[in-house]
Amino acid sequence: MHDPGIYALIQLMPTVLRPAGWALWAAATVLDDLADQRDAEPAERAARVEAWTQALHCELAAGTSRDPVRHALVDSALRWRLDLSSLRGAMISTRDDTRGRHFADWAAWRAWCNGAITPWVDQVRHLFERAGAPMTLRLDRQQDYQWFIDGARLTDTLTDLSADLAQGDLFLPQEALDAFPGAEDDLRQGSWSQAAAALVRELTALARQWVTRPAMTTGMHPGAATVLNTAASLMRAQLDAVDAAGHALLKRAPRPSLAARTRILAPARIRSKLAWSLTPLTAPGPRRPTVAASEPSPEADDTALRPPPPHRDGVRPPQIAADRMPAHVAVIMDGNGRWAEQRGLPRPEGHRAGTAAAHEMVHGALEIGLRHLTLYAFSTENWKRDTEEITTILEAIRRDLDEGPIRDLDVRQRWLGHPDKLPQELVQALLREERRTSTRTGLTLTVCINYGGRDEITRTAAALAQAAHAGDIDPHLIGQDDFARHLPHPDMPDVDLLWRTGNEQRISNFLPWHTSYAELCFTSDYWPDVDRRDLWQAITEYSRRQRRHGGATR
Ligand code: IPE
Ligand code: IPE
Ligand code: MG
């Protein structure tokens, strides 16, 4: 955190973004310092981190702070519309660091890295995005990004070995230490043995490999790419310094020489200056009054619930008799791509435009009193599309979750689909909103992302097989109810009405179990062109249908 390299990296950001970069860095550093203060017991240090975090939460709502670092962070968050709620987990992790850490293996170590560092780096990425120079990672590079972050953490840990050991800490996984018998004891006793040296050599090589991810920045804005590539070069120089330190590593944190740093930074400054001078950046607009700081408790959330905004023409929903209302409407939101093509726009524009229609459906569903609305946003088959289109769809969903335009409505939000291949930050955002809204009682909105009906059925069958194998269920007695209980959301009712826009008449692998007796409604408008009146129209049509479920008409 005290690494002067970070200062140099912030200097590579466009001028307009630097104050926010400094604010984030300062906040992370202060929290780290609070967690490390040697004059206090761990419990006291944990309390200080917690108090700082709580104060930030209140001050974000107030829009100001008397503490200079928090004030800078509050100001940046409001100016750039950053949602700092994802930092809450990182702050809790810093608090818990005060109690010492032990990692059995690399997986445990990596999980810690992920929770403690990734949210901070992600905030910087949001900043770039807000300014109009996104640090977008291609989906097939997400794994590189993860390695890169792990490499940064390992570089930091090796650099700070002396300071950590002085506090009795060794933030390395047991698995790595055990590979060099005796190394751990030697390090803890301050002895630079052959085993200790071999361990450090192995770990610097590993870190070098992890931070060297040239493909990670392919296709990225050149300014943003320069920041990341320079970070990687600085880390390699730092690892060289660790390797060169020898026994001095146990006395103080090694730093690369001025010459080594200059060799990296001088060309990077020229490159980034040129890149930013060619990019029109968006300066922040006026400050927004408040930004959510952390996950409020569900109770606090519910007191702030507001009714849905009315339709722009003031149209009100039709009156549908209670026994004619569908309990569950599922929608295949189709036609975004064709909507864009029809206007000569790139397909991704269609997906961006589709977000407003999805909000409309939520508003319309609340107004008409629907209990369950399920939206098909991204199918397991949609991975066949171009990476750019996929990134836009998933990014639009993530941004929408972060901005939270439906957050204060009486909507319980949840996600149906599988996390495989989805960006980590999207998964986090989905789970966050699910937790935040879990006690709402109005509309249940299920968004299907990376969802496939056959995938769902296969996984459910596997879960049943496991239950049978474990002896929890007799395979001879398995019935439909048992199957339904093993679905990912067992409380999701059957779909009464399945509505598809975009002039196609097919199901496209959507909710096969739940739609087996659904009424079908196909309309021709492309998704970005529909609004809540179309939902009401579909429900009105449904209310006139005769459903027999295999029985005979009376
Ligand atoms: C639906 O719109 C949205 C998703 C599948 C994610 P499309 O992108 O399928 O639009 P068309 O069908 O190509 O017009
Ligand atoms: C179905 O639409 C999936 C979603 C709306 C998310 P597609 O556009 O992918 O379906 P096909 O390819 O026309 O069947
Ligand atoms: Mg389509």
UniProtKB/TrEMBL annotation:
Domain of life (superkingdom): Bacteria
Record: residues binding substrate: 335-339, 347, 351, 379-381, 383, 385, 500, 506-508
Cofactor binding description: Binds 2 magnesium ions per subunit.
EC numbers for this chain: 2.5.1.-
InterPro entries documented for this protein: Isoprenoid_synthase_dom_sf, Squ/phyt_synthse, UPP_synth-like, UPP_synth-like_sf
Cofactor(s) demanded: Mg(2+)
Active site: D334, N382
Pfam families linked: Prenyltransf, SQS_PSY
Keywords, comma-separated and alphabetical: Magnesium, Metal-binding, Transferase
Positions annotated to bind Mg(2+): D334, E519
Chain intervals for the UniProt region annotation (Disordered): 279-318
Any GO molecular function: transferase activity
UniProt cross-references to CDD domains, sorted A to Z: Cis_IPPS
Assembly description: Homodimer.
Family: Belongs to the UPP synthase family.
Job of this protein: Catalyzes the condensation of isopentenyl diphosphate (IPP) with allylic pyrophosphates generating different type of terpenoids.
Protein name: Isoprenyl transferase
Organism encoding this protein: Streptomyces flavochromogenes
